[in-house]
Amino acid sequence: MRILLAYISIILIWATTPLAIKWSGEGPGFLLGATGRMSIGIVCVAMLLLLRRQRLAWHSKARRTYLAVALQIYCSMLAVYWAAQFIPSGWVSVIFGLSPLITALLSAIWLKERSLTPGKLLSYGFGVGGLAVMFGSALQLGQEAALGIAGVLVAALLQSASAVWVQRIQAKLPALSQVAGGLLLAVPAYWLTWRLADGQWPASLPLASLASIIYLGVIATTIGFVLYYYVLAHLAATRVALITLLSPVLALMLGHTVNHEPLTMKIAAGTALILSALFMHEYFDRMVGYLVRKTTAKRLRSSA
């Protein structure tokens, strides 16, 4: 039951995160927005560690796990923040929906999982088709939108690599420790990046940006990341990635309703193809296997 509640919570958090990311960067800039979020997050996580009297492990597997987590918290999230400047917030969630396919491919290569079945390969075709439609819509908005899609794709690849890497290490650390260790490495990198690339405090900070940064720091980073790595510790990386099956639809609806983002037929078609790819990725082989077993059982009864 705890895993189910955590799973549902992650879906809701991930559905609202893209819009909050977009709003958080509209005033102070995407670098300061991301840096502020992670800085709030590490303070909250440190408080949780103190309340629970939980110490961080520093053995070899723990250090490698923190580095793997930092790959997502710093590299992947930085790419998302940069890309969110150029595309509607709902698109971020839709394109991130390809992460189960990327995760399955990386799991097959890195963890030697048997995840490249005919059904999985067919789902890749649908996913690429949906991505092509999204790129077509982006080109209508301008070259920057296409760059935004490319940025989110890079972020999805890095997040998938992080998830598979954590499972490969098998350090069996508590979720809170994984997040804390990852943030300890990522936050200094964020501040250094902001200092070198920007370094200017904003003249004003809109209320929506401030509220978004606080929401992302307290909810999305602290609670969201802890729940994510809690679920990741109990389920396969490919199944955890299926959270993106529902969050894109919710994110598109939220962006269209609250932020008046465009929702054209091309966007809907691209989203439908990507979601179909995710559905096929998870259920196509199971359905074929069920039908084969049912047909075989029927033939056996007939011959008897």
Question: How would you characterize this protein structure?
Answer:
There is one protein chain. The chain has 304 residues and is mostly helical. The protein is built from 12 helices and no strands. Helix 2 packs antiparallel against helix 8, helix 4 packs across helix 7 and helix 4 packs antiparallel against helix 11. It is globular and about 80 Å long. The mean pLDDT is 84.
List its salient traits.
304 residues; mainly alpha; 12 helices; 82% helix; globular
Provide a compact summary of the structure.
The protein has 304 residues and is mainly α. It has 12 helices and no strands.
- Separation of the first and last Cα atoms: 44 Å
| Average pLDDT reading | 84
Strand content: under 5%
Q: H/E order of the elements?
A: HHHHHHHHHHHH
| Number of E strands | 0
Biggest sheet architecture: none
Low-confidence segments, ≥5 residues, pLDDT <50?
none
Q: Give the overall form.
A: globular
Q: Roughly how much helix do the residues carry, as a percent range?
A: over 70%
Radius of gyration: 20 Å
Structural class: mainly alpha
Total helices: the number is 12
